[in-house]
Amino acid sequence: MLLLRCLWKGTLQKLSCQFCALMGKLQSKLKHSAYKCRPDGIIEERIQTKTFQEYSPAHVDSVFVIAALNSELCVSGGKDKTVVAYNWKTGIVVKKFKGHEREITKLACVPKSSQFFSASRDRTVMMWDLHGSSQPRQQLVGHDMVVTGLAVSPDSSQLCTGSRDNTLLLWDVGTGQCVEKACVSRNLVTHLCWVPREPYVLQTSEDKTMRLWDIRGLQVAHMFPPKQHIQTYCEVSMDGHKCISCSNGFGGEGCEATLWDLRQTRNRICEYKGHFQTVASCVFLPKTLALMPVIATSSHDSKVKIWNQDTGACLFTLSLDGSGPLTSLAVGDADSLLCASFNRGIHLLKVGHSKGLELQEVATF
After folding, report:
1. What is the pTM (predicted TM-score) of this model?
2. What does the alpha-carbon distance between residue 141 and residue 11 come to, in Å, rounded to a whole number?
3. What CATH number is associated with residue 124?
């Protein structure tokens, strides 16, 4: 009888573990807090000790890029050459897409759609549909080196791609054909972003500049003043009036984000300094989050910072210890951020207001 009880207890424990693994939830962990004063007197606050949920990892290796497909689903890619669609509210993997021969470098979602594009070091771009098969709907081949930029037009009819081969290509999404090509010497593309409601694409480069392209003929419409360091990323505000770019760097040299005017003057408006390694990503946060406009940045120093967009003051710093370089940020919904990392997969962050504007890690997957 005792033996039967032990066997029954072991079976129940095994089934319980299998059920938890299926649902994605593994365990909770603790995160400790600290406060750091910068020389300029600004207090940087890290998250207070709280529990957060750890789900089954979406990827088996480093995650390089993440994008929000809608208010519940995200897509991510990285070193494991797989694109994963994930429900970040339930912690469940919805679908995995395999087709690239090398790691995923960029993702771009088609507005108000279940479709998205992925780019890879294998020099190809693939189009996927969450509700379709696990095979790509399209495979676009035209670059000679790793594809490092993707931008979908607001009406979903065109795709712009960029590469370390110094070229930008414009594609017709319906036919999968390349309709325009532009090449600029030493223009090693790092990121692309389409300007809302406009025929313009913003592009950052390893030549330390940011260019504004007119897709009607794929010509450079404006080149912003060069920075001192490589520009790694760019993002355009929803109203299309402003944009932010990020710089690489080390030891606090460079490592900043810059706000630019996209309208008549196209001047530099503000800089956000405080990271100590390369700033890999930056996003405009929803206006409903705070009384003032705010932006967020993520860096290779394992920190996510929230900034006052107008003054450049750092409002909050969250340190994701042990995560390694933070590679990508995406706005999930009105109060959620998704952050990709080298060592600990994807982090779900919540913006709160219990003690002023603050950022809390609530889950990893």
Report:
1. 0.87
2. 52
3. 2.40.10.480
